[in-house]
Every structure is written in C-alpha cells, then in structure tokens.
Design brief:
- This protein is mostly helical and about 450 residues long.
- Helices cover about 75% and strands about 0% of the residues.
- α12 packs across α14.
- It starts with 20 loop residues before the first helix and ends with a helix.
Length: about 450
C-alpha cells in the first residue's frame, strides 16, 4: 500500500516481536494485508474459473448442490469485505507515509503523485492482460481524492465516510425501488436470460483460446466492468480509506500496547457490534436471489461492519502466542502484497485459460476454492523465500523506482539476513520492510 514510518527501527522479525510500537504497528498492518490477500483471491478466482459471471445466470457446469454451498460460503464470508479491508489499510498506510515524509523533511506531494500514476498504469496493465475486475485503477483515482483531504481531522473523516456510505446505499435502494416499480422485477426476461447464457458460452470459449483471445476478452469486458468498479466499489472503497486515515491519525494500531486492557475492550466492542450486523446483512444477501437489488443495497451497508469485526478478531488473535506465529506467516505475503495480488491473477490465467491448462468451466466450485487455497499456500512459502533474499517484492521495487526516480537496493545484505532471519533483518532490514508494504 503506502510507505510505513519507523525507518531503521530495530526488530527481530516482521511479526512485531520487537519492543517498539512502530514494529508492532507495521507487523499488524502487514499481517492484515496478508490475510486480505486470501479473501481477495477467494472472491476473484470464480471470475477466472467460469465465463458465466453475471448475476441471475448460473454456469450450466455448476448446478450440483455442493456448487451452491461453496458459492454461498464465499458470498457469506468473503464477498465485499476484503476490498474494504485493503482500502482501510490503504488509508491507514497513507498516514504513515505522511509521518515518514515529515520526519525526514522530504517533499510528499510529487512522490505520492508519481506513486499513484505508477499504480494506475499497473492497474491498466492488469485489467487489460489479466483481470478485468482490477481494483488498482480505482485506488489510484480515489487516492488523489484522499491526498486532497489529507488535512481532514479524524472525526470529520469518519463523518464523511459515513455520509458517503449512507448516500450511496440510499441511491442504490432508490434504484432498486425504481426497477421494482417500473419493471415489476429485476429478474431478466427469458430473452435476456438466453442472451446472458450465450454471452457466458462465448466468454468461456474466448478464455479457452490463446493469449490474444484472452486479452481481447479482457479488453471487451472493461467497457462494462471498469465503470462498475469505479462507481460501485469506488465510493465504498473511499469510505474505507477515510476510516483508515482516521485510524492512522488516531494511532489505533500504534497505541495498542499503551493500555492493553482498554485496547482489548475496544476490539471486543467492535466484535459485538460488527458480527451481528454484518452477518445478518451477509445472510440476507447470500440467501436472496442473485438479482435482488434490495439485498445488494443492504449488503453494501452492513459489509463494513463485518470487515471491522474481522479486523478486531485478527488483532486480538495476533496478541496471543499462537496468533503471533500466524501473524508472522501472514506478514510475509503482506509485505509484498502488490506482487502477490498480481501474481494471483497471473496464476489464475495460467490455470484456467487456454494460455495455460484451460480449466475454465471444468472445475466444480469446491475445487476452485481448493485451487485458491493452494495458490495462497504457495504464496506464503514463496514470500518467505523471497524476503530472505530481497528487500521487497519485484513489483514493489518497480513502484518504488517510479516514485523516487531512483534504482532502489534490492538484495538483502548478508548481515541483514543473519540478523533478521525470515523477517528480513534489523536496521536497514526494517526499512526494507517499510518499503515492501507500499504495494497499493
């Protein structure tokens, strides 16, 4: 996401086993980001595994009961929650980059704007070549708005986030009401359903073709998906960024050690509110018909509550001995989240399209989830391997080079590796950790 403060903080590993609050803060951010990668993958992978991606039309190859159960599980637990978590971390990390620039006395504006420009170009490449549902373009665009609002107070940021979410949900519900009043139903007609089935077959065949066929399909989908991503996901993502901005300014993660009892009570309060509200909305959305716009509007309203409850649960878990070990494992892919996000798309293209194995439409939904878990397991292992040798992920390196207009050091020096083990070292290793987290 963006740069972390605390350059040069000595630490033993990326989990936050060191004593500094900056170390713990960075470890929590990295671990949360690493966990978010799993949720993002589980939500995105069905769009690679099937050409039938529109609401209201089922993939003819996935009509078994277990396909419905697996699909419902993803909708209930993951859908619309994890891009909000990424967005929250974007806003939180933005405040750390502001602090870091101020502490070092360097210009923030030109570097951050170059970063957003590079992120936008990476997103365009991802959308055209790999995944038309790319979120990086949206982050780059709304990152500009976040930059303009960088001086906002935490209280006002939370109010603005709530207003944006409320207005968006009201407009969406107004649309649902208009559809119900004038069309009688949001369900497609027989002719529309037949066309969606034909479009699904055509998309499946295109994805089974070679690289140029896949790219052509991706580009053609962008005319529909890009506006939807910007105007549907964008406002809610920006609201989450503002919440992250407020959390960063209030030092929510940095101050967790100041009063552990009070910190724990706050997290439990978030859980007690977030889980009932979020799970109720998620259940209604999951069990409603796929074209129920009212269920979608309610889901937009309640998903942030469930996201917050997930975060609170993870932060409490990370404070335990076992949770600390899990956080260490999650922090490694989180430190190179942009590389892992893009590599997820690349691996899915190689597995499901004709560029590789061509498994689109041939794997049951439960099998698709299994493939996602296998991909994430590989990312856990390869991230640990990579960060023992390099300071940051390869795409993070490119993003940093574009931001600072210089060639960053990439390899971990022998002494850093010896001091930091898998965590990446101390001293400059901590700086490497801070650079590695600047992924989106």
């Amino acid at each position: 996401m963006t740069a972390e403060a605390g350059r040069g903080t000595s630490t033993s590993a990326s989990t936050g086993t060191g004593t500094g609050t900056g170390t713990r803060r960075l470890a929590d951010v990295d671990a949360l980001r690493g966990f978010a990668l799993l949720g993002i993958l589980l939500v995105n992978i069905p769009f690679f595994a099937s050409g039938y991606t529109l609401p209201g039309v089922a993939d003819p190859a996935r009509t078994a009961w277990h396909d419905g159960v697996a699909s419902g599980l993803i909708q209930f637990v993951f859908e619309a929650k994890f891009y909000l978590l990424f967005s929250f971390l974007f806003g939180y990390s933005f405040t750390l980059q502001l602090d870091s620039a101020a502490a070092r006395g360097v210009g923030f504006r030109p570097r951050f704007l170059r970063r957003l420009g590079a992120l936008f170009l990476i997103g365009v490449a991802n959308a055209a070549l790999l995944y038309y549902g790319d979120i990086l373009i949206t982050y780059a665009l709304f990152g500009l708005l976040l930059f303009l609002m960088r001086g906002i107070s935490p209280r006002r940021a939370l109010w603005v986030a709530g207003i944006i979410t409320g207005v968006f949900v009201l407009l969406f519900l107004a649309l649902a009401t208009a559809v119900a009043l004038f069309d009688g139903s949001s369900s497609p007609t027989a002719a529309e359903h037949a066309k969606m089935l034909a479009d699904g077959r055509a998309a499946t065949e295109a994805m089974r073709g070679g690289p140029w066929s896949v790219i052509a399909d991706r580009v053609s989908e962008l005319t529909t998906t890009l506006p939807l991503t910007i105007f549907i996901q964008g406002p809610l993502a920006f609201s989450a960024m503002l919440v992250g901005l407020a959390a960063g300014k209030l030092r929510v993660l940095a101050d967790r050690g100041a009063d552990p009892a009070a910190y724990g009570r706050k997290l439990r309060t978030i859980q007690w509110i977030g889980f009932p509200v979020g799970l109720a909305g998620s259940a209604f959305y999951t069990f409603a018909s796929t074209d129920n716009l009212f269920a979608g509007g309610l889901h937009f309203l309640t998903a942030p509550f469930l996201t917050a409850a997930y975060v609170a649960t993870l932060l409490r878990f990370f404070r335990t001995v076992r949770g600390g070990r899990v956080a260490e494992a999650l922090a490694r892919p989180g430190r190179m989240a942009l590389t892992n996000y893009l590599s997820q798309s690349l691996l899915c293209v190689l597995i499901f399209t004709g560029t590789g194995l061509g498994l689109i439409g041939r794997v049951p939904y439960a099998g698709v989830i299994g493939i996602a878990l296998a991909i994430y397991s590989v990312q856990l292992l390869w991230s640990a391997w990579w960060l023992r040798r390099f300071r940051m992920g390869p795409v993070e390196w490119l993003l940093r080079a574009a931001t600072y207009l210089e060639r960053p050091a990439m390899r971990v020096r022998r002494q850093e590796g010896a001091d930091g083990g898998s965590g990446g070292g101390s001293g400059t290793g901590a700086e490497a950790r801070s650079e590695a987290t600047r992924s989106a």
